[in-house]
Amino acid sequence: MDSLAAGQRPDRSRPRLRREAGTLAALDQPDQLPHQRQPVRRRVAVPPAQAHAVMTAGGLMPIPMGWRDELDRPIACRSDGELVSRRQFIADLNHNIGLLGQRPDEAAILSTANLYWFAVGLFALAACRKRTILAANDLPATLAGLTDHAGLLVGDREHAFSGVQHRLQRSDDARGTAWPEIALTAPICFFTSGSTGGPKRIDKELRHLVTEAEAISDLFAAQRAGFRSVCGTVPHHHAYGLAFRLVWPLISGIPFAEETPEFLEQALAELDIGAVFVTSPAHLHRLDGFAPLPSARRPACVLSAGAPLDGEAAQRAQELFGCAVTEIYGSTETGALASRLHDRSGEPWRPLPGVQLSQDPSGHASATAPHIPGGQAVLADHVRRRDDAGFDLLGRRDRVVKIEAKRVSLDEVEARLRELADVEDAIVIVRGHPARLAACVVPSGAGAGFLANEGAFRFNRRIRAALAIHLEAASLPRHWRFVEQLPRGALGKISQRDVETLFDE
User: Fold this and answer.
1) Among 40, 281, 319, 472, which one has the highest count of C-beta atoms within 10 angstroms of its own C-beta?
2) In terms of Cα–Cα distance, which of 23, 16, 78, 492 is closest to 272?
């Protein structure tokens, strides 16, 4: 935590966002429907901003276009209707730049529950020229695993973390509106599941995120006038959520909802007319039982990314929201690369503005774009080019799969299983629709004893609990088989087909 004077007590209250004078004219007051407990914002009546600024010129990020003369317009809104203005954001940014600038650390882990405070932390660290480390999640084991990269954690709450913590603070003086010097070359480091089984480090710079946001803005230029707010269910520490819920709306002048609803019911209850709803197949596959939204609360756009969306789920979503789902294709390494409107079967993917797709003689596809580090990247998917400049996705080329829109390394899950005292060996496969993990496990001597005495149900619960210390819920196997040895061929290679047969019995 930050150093305190002798006898001074730390302020452990959560940072609060206050409603700024003048902003209520821009957004309607929330009201309460008789049958709902949550306040529902009826309309975000923010007029369309000017076209986004070209923000990658030079080494510093200029103030977004349209901000300087309209500082009292909102940048973010809370689920209870409370607002925060651009003026307050700049003040909070400068205040935390001053605090973080006093620290000698060259890097910091950024982890917040609140999207607004994530924005403050991200740009404050860039202004201080510190490397920002983005964890795949906020599990204590994940944060502990990043201490070799940074000993400082920046957040909006206290974590179970062995290093120093800086809690982002609100400025009580919003009079100063000087836009800070934010370095576009500031390094940003993602950690995500890799094919080797351990966390994969992906290095970018802030300019890559800003250039990606400009491409997204160009993609939606024709629809921009109807976009009044941005909200969603996708966590902002994921590359997709960061791009579409934060960086793009910030440079485009669209207010963003700073909270991420825990439940789908809450997310749907808080939708406004004209909203851009950033979600994933993990949520769109759970729309059964929900009635179509009334026209006064239908979003202007629904985005989905992270995993393929099947036709049945896309149709249900279109009936509920009143608009077809726009799917986004990309990766943490490349950012957003392509989109398609999922309104009919077989619709091809089309590259985003500024993205070019090529294919070598072996069939491996590459993407070229200004927002890709190095300018070019080989895709992890097999693709089929179409004559109309579109393309089809034919599946991944590695063992990193998507479960509930999250990247899951099968190698990592297997490695974690083999680390357990109850497990001698294991293989993990993907089964079913929607996709779920299935684990075939060879118990150790101790594990076999527990299995014999307590049964398979208690044994798989015991293993799942041990895995949950290190892995997110999507990475935990749902189906289990316990065998004396894994099925292997003559050369010792495990037979995937034989493993799948074990789960068909």
Assistant:
1) 281
2) 78
Q: At what angle do helices 115-127 and 86-100 cross, to 10 degrees?
A: 50
CB 51 within 8 A of CB 174: no
Please write the tens of the pLDDT for every residue from 172-221: 987 778 999 999 999 999 987 544 445 688 999 999 999 999 999 999 99
Instruction: Report helix, strand or coil for 351.
Output: strand
Angle between the N-to-C axes of helices 410-419 and 456-467, in degrees from 0 to 180, rounded to the nearest 10: 110
In the CATH scheme, what architecture does the domain 23-336 have? 3-Layer(aba) Sandwich (3.40)
Verify cis geometry, omega within 30 degrees of 0, for the bond prior to 434: yes
Are 321 and 302 spatial neighbours (Cβ–Cβ below 8 Å)?
Answer: yes
CATH topology of domain 402-504: GMP Synthetase; Chain A, domain 3 (3.30.300)
Q: CA angle 22-23-28, nearest 5°?
A: 125
Task: Kindly report which listed range (13-22, 297-306, 314-323, 451-460) carries the lowest average pLDDT score.
Answer: 13-22
Tens digits of residue pLDDT in 252-300 = 999 999 999 988 899 999 898 999 999 998 889 889 899 999 999 999 9
Q: What is the sign, positive or negative, of the torsion defined by CA atoms of 370, 371, 374, 380?
A: negative
The mean-pLDDT minimum among 46-55, 247-256, 292-301, 333-342 falls in 46-55
Interaxial angle between packed helices 456-467 and 445-454, expressed in degrees from 0 to 180 and rounded to the nearest 10: 130
DSSP letter at 103 equals: S
Neighbours of 222 (CB within 10 A): 8
Task: Tell me how far CA of residue 372 lies from CA of 207, 338, 379, in angstroms.
Answer: 10, 13, 12
Burial group, residue 393, by CB count within 10 angstroms (0-12, 13-18, 19+): middle
- Per-residue 3-state assignment (H helix, E strand, C coil) for 443-458: ECHHHHHHHHHHCHHH
pLDDT tens digits for range 151-171:
999 999 999 898 999 999 999
Q: What is the mean pLDDT of residues 142-147?
A: 90
Residue 483, phi-psi category: left (phi > 0), alpha (psi -120 to 50), beta (remainder): beta
